[in-house]
Amino acid sequence: MKQEWISYLQEISVPDRYVSNVEKKINEVSSIFNTEIKRIFVCNRQSEQKIEYSSLWLFSEDRVYECKNFISKEDYDVLIFRNKIAYVNIQKSDFDNIENPSTTSSLNAVCLLKDINMSCSLSSVGVNTKYLLELLKEIYLKNLI
User: In this structure, how many other beta carbons lie within 10 angstroms of the beta carbon of residue 126?
Assistant: First the structure.
C-alpha cells in the first residue's frame, strides 16, 4: 500500500485493525478488475461518541469502486465516472475553515450519474472533510456534464 494512503488513514484515525482491510480491498479490486488504483477515500461519520467507517472508495483512471461496509463485507460496486456525472449535491456543517476543519465539521455529497439510475453517496467528518472536498474538486466536479 502506498505510503500516502497509510498517512491518510492515520490522519483520519482509521484503527490499525481496519488498515489491513483497506489493503486487502485495494489488492482484490486491482486483481479482479485488472486495474491500478490511483486514489482512495474512506467514508466516515459521527455516531454517538465514536466515528464509524463505512464505504471504501477506490479510484482508477476512469472508474470508481465502492467497497461497501469494507470492514465486514465483500460487496463491490463499479462505476465509470468520466464525463458521466449529471448532478452533485453537497451538504456541509461546521465547515467554515476549509484548511483546518474542526472535529465537528461534516461534509456529505451525493452524485447522480447520467443515463443510469445510480448515485454515489460520500460522507466525512473532522479532518476527512478536507479530503472529501479535494476529491469532489479533482474528480467529481471535473466530470460534471
Answer: 19
Q: How many domains is the chain partitioned into structurally?
A: 1
Looking at the chain, list the stretches that DSSP marks H as alpha helix, in order from N- to C-terminal side: 3-11, 16-32, 128-135
pLDDT tens track for 42-98: 999 998 889 999 999 999 988 999 999 999 988 999 988 788 888 889 999 988 877
**21 vs 73: CA distance, rounded Å:** 10
Per-residue cell: 93: 456543517
CATH number at residue 28: 2.30.29.30
Handedness of CA 60, 63, 65, 66 (dihedral sign): positive
Q: What is the pTM of this model?
A: 0.92
Q: C-alpha distances in angstroms, 95 versus 5, 92, 112, 115, 124? A: 23, 6, 23, 33, 11
Task: Catalogue the E-assigned strands of the chain.
Answer: 39-47, 50-59, 63-68, 75-80, 85-93, 106-113, 119-125
| Cell numbers placing 133 | 472536498
| Cβ atoms within 10 Å of 38's Cβ, excluding its own | 11
